[in-house]
């Protein structure tokens, strides 16, 4: 804003100086020009000519005109047919242009004064041309052309110096004016930019989550109105966010309470279904099928309840890491063995040996199990599990399959809770929370997990955890 203020001041000073310069230059040059042309014409008109002209007499006339030059001395030249005479030691001047000479001879029989400003060798000149006339004895008052043209050359260096002095004075006056203009510019900028800075700091504070941020608004200008509008919007946002947080807390508490309350009856149901599974072989086929269905659905419900309990702990920020230094390859192998994923045609483990990391073994087991189980459910064998240390010194666990891969429109949502790529599919063999729990467990370790498609086909999930 200060720059803009100074720019306006500079443009104003420059424009004023330019207009002043033009007006002063025109006034100075026109005054000098009018004085010189008028005096020169009077001198030439006062010549008493006797034709034919004598060179010596003509030179004396020119010297006399040159001595009376004003406002500054003239150098006077004359042309009469082939005769060339001057008040100097040179009969002709290179300053006199053909254009001026042509204008001097343009009107036969009528005295016509011509003048021209010329710059020669860096020096400005005023050149003048006046045709001399004489009056006949039998026609008093009638001017007749004599064929003589008188020229005068006068330097304008002093006038240019006066103009340059005006320019210097205008420039020297503009610099203090700009310096003085800096003071109101700073005051104006302070008055305008200070509320803007306060508004920016308040917006940054709200962006960091401090919704109680407010701006001190005073006055009745537009910036004050903006500050009051910001305060009103911030207050409304704070109320809305507080209500959303309360609703979210109620929803989390409800999910946690329901999951907790379901665990006790589910434990009894699981015990009963185990007994029924053992005796299913002695039952008729329809009853046995119903018993096995109840047993399978009870197991799914138990898994869903456990996953809900786990995700509730993440939401409540109650999840904790219990780390230990472990051998990564051993941990992955234990996960595969405990889930009975040991068929080499189904799962292949390519594990780097000797990689040790501080991990929570239980949570790391959940991460690997969820990724491999997801690959087996939604992809096709062979599922490959790799574990290695990358060039940045981080642990990388990669699980890939040879299935159709993940549709591009689904990729951004694979870690969302209960997300279904096919809305028509209402039932799933999983809880719908496996990948969400995987993401939270990896974040708890300070790592990242990414889903992508392999160029050769199949989905690839990559976990990266700093060692």
Q: Give Rg in angstroms.
A: 52 Å
How many strand units? 12
CATH class of the largest domain: Alpha Beta
Largest sheet: 5 strands, antiparallel
Shape: rod-shaped
**Order of strands in the sheet with most strands:** 2-1-5-4-3
CATH architecture of the largest domain: 2-Layer Sandwich
For the record, give the distance between the C-alpha atoms at the N and C termini, rounded to a whole number: 50 Å
Q: Give the uncertain stretches in residue-range form.
A: none
Mean pLDDT: 82
Please provide the ordered H/E string of secondary-structure elements: HHEEHEEEHHHEHEEHEEHEE
The helix/strand class is alpha+beta
Q: Please tally the helical runs, counting DSSP H or I stretches of 4 or more residues.
A: 9
> How much of the polypeptide forms β-strand, as a percent range?
15-25%
Give the number of domains: 3
- Oligomeric description of these chains: single chain
What's the helical proportion of residues? 40-55%
Pfam families: HAMP, HATPase_c, HisKA
GO molecular function, one term: ATP binding
Protein name: Signal transduction histidine-protein kinase/phosphatase MprB
Cofactor: Mn(2+); Mg(2+)
What is the topological layout?
Blueprint: H1 2-45, H2 55-67, E1 75-80, E2 83-86, H3 98-104, E3 114-120, E4 123-135, E5 143-155, H4 157-207, H5 222-279, H6 285-315, E6 324-327, H7 328-338, E7 347-351, E8 356-359, H8 361-378, E9 383-389, E10 394-400, H9 434-444, E11 448-453, E12 459-466
Parallel strand pairs: 7-9
Antiparallel strand pairs: 1-2, 1-5, 3-4, 4-5, 6-8, 9-10, 10-12, 11-12
Helix pairs in contact: 1-4, 4-5, 5-6, 6-9, 7-8, 8-9
